[in-house]
Design brief:
- Strands 1, 2, 7, 8, 9, 10 and 20 form a 7-stranded mixed β-sheet that branches.
- The protein is built from 12 helices and 21 strands.
- It is 30% helix and 27% strand.
- Bound molecules: flavin-adenine dinucleotide.
């Protein structure tokens, strides 16, 4: 029976990227995937336009127990490297002022280019890997149908969010089997369910500032019927959210000073109306519900308390839940980077076993950082396996 040089489990962005660099080294490569098509997450990413990289790629945009783990990989496979690869494949792209790069046509075009790079590998679809054993330097990869053999294995099985696309926790299980530590998994880049805002405010979208762990994040928040979402909340959930966070609904002004100025100059104006100059009407009404008098009729301390209510909404740990693995774009947690070489992606516990992409305890911020990580770490694994 054929012994491959490398078998890659998972034909997502990381697995295909690993296959490409392994094939450049003229290795005999097989890619095994449980789904009926490669890179299903990438195909729908970025609303179908795949936000594939970001000029701001740096370890500060990655989260996990050791974000510095990414440094060697992203220094070698930079955003410019990825952009050059896109250009080389004749793909059109769009650059946003935020530094984000999207496919100008369709994410499926990036998938086609990745598949083309991996065309000389045996791609085995609809085949779920059930177990891996190592015996005398050969890996035995068991699927329901057959046993494959290889000298190296790359685990590129991704995360377990968005199960509708077909996901599995096999990567974590096999890592554990070979002695690796697993950092607990939770949804990330997702909405939050909370009762802090009543459901009749659903649909309101506004630019806010989130304060989490001494970091300020400014972006849009959407109030939903079950809680809050939008980019600022997605980004918050990638961070260490366990202790909660604070929301400032009017980050661009000193609210107390602004209200006091009205009190001094236009005291006959209704407080609720004043708030609606800066906030959506429904939100202004909710914030000022028992405060419908003219602004001059309020004591400074009352205005101060209202300012706090607007600028310092506390979402403490008992007030929210992450909403949920079904809809989260990625997960936090995964195979601990402690026992993986950052230079090669090889296990420090089992030679010939490699891990790449989202299966590792590396989570990127919203904005193209996750696909960049999958592509870049895949290349490194394929260069070294
Ligand atoms: C809706 C959505 C939108 C997103 N948009 C963006 C975006 O615009 N930009 C960005 O940077 N990130 C985005 N992401 C995140 C990004 O898509 C992922 O982080 C990235 O694709 C992960 O790549 P991967 O190769 O590590 O894993 P995956 O792409 O998940 O691939 C893993 C593969 O392993 C296979 N597999 C698992 N277990 C087994 C097994 N036992 N046997 C055989 N095969 C197995 C799976 O079938 C799958 O094909 C988005 C995610 C979602 C869900």
């Amino acid at each position: 029976m054929k012994i491959y040089d490398i078998i890659i489990i998972g034909a997502g962005a990381a697995g295909l990227s690993a296959a490409a660099t392994a094939l450049i080294r003229e290795k005999a490569v097989a890619l095994i995937d449980m789904g009926n098509a490669p890179a299903r997450k990438l195909s729908i990413s970025g609303g179908g336009k795949c936000n594939f990289t970001n000029l701001a790629v740096s370890s500060s945009k990655y989260f996990g127990n050791n974000p510095n783990f990414v440094n060697g990989v992203i220094n070698k496979i930079s955003p410019q490297y990825f952009i050059n690869w896109i250009e080389k494949h004749g793909l059109e792209f769009e650059k946003k002022s935020s530094g984000q790069y999207f496919c100008a046509t369709n994410a499926k075009d990036i998938v086609s280019a990745m598949k083309n790079d991996a065309r000389n590998a045996d791609i085995i679809l609809n085949s779920t890997v059930l177990d891996i054993e190592k015996n005398a330097d050969i890996f035995y990869i068991k699927t329901k149908e057959k046993i494959f053999m290889s000298k190296s294995v790359i685990i590129a099985t991704g995360g377990i969010s968005y199960p509708a696309l077909g996901v599995s926790d096999f990567g974590y299980k096999i890592a554990k089997k070979f002695g690796h530590k697993i950092i607990p998994i939770r949804p990330a880049l997702c909405a939050i369910s909370t009762k802090v805002f009543p459901s009749n405010l659903a649909g309101i979208s506004l630019k806010v500032e989130i304060n989490i762990e001494n970091e300020k994040i400014n972006d849009f928040m959407l109030i939903t019927h079950f809680g809050i979402g939008g980019p600022v909340i997605y980004r918050t959930t990638a961070r260490n959210i366990e202790k909660g966070f604070k929301i400032n609904l009017l980050p661009d002004i000193n609210i107390f000073e602004w209200l006091k100025n009205f009190k001094n100059t236009e005291g006959k104006k209704n407080l609720g109306n004043i708030l609606s100059y800066k906030l959506p009407k429904r939100l202004a009404k909710w914030l000022s519900k028992d405060m419908q008098k003219n602004i001059a009729d309020y004591k400074d301390i009352e205005l101060k308390n209202l300012s706090k209510k607007i600028s310092n909404i506390e979402i403490s740990k008992d007030k929210f839940n992450l909403y949920n693995l079904q809809s989260a774009e990625v997960v936090r947690g995964g195979v601990s980077t402690e026992q993986i070489s950052p230079k090669t992606m090889e296990s420090k516990l089992c030679s010939g076993l490699f891990f790449t992409g989202e299966v590792l305890d590396i989570t990127g911020d919203l904005g193209g950082f996750n696909i960049h990580w999958a592509f870049a770490s895949g290349r490194i694994a394929g260069e070294n396996a």
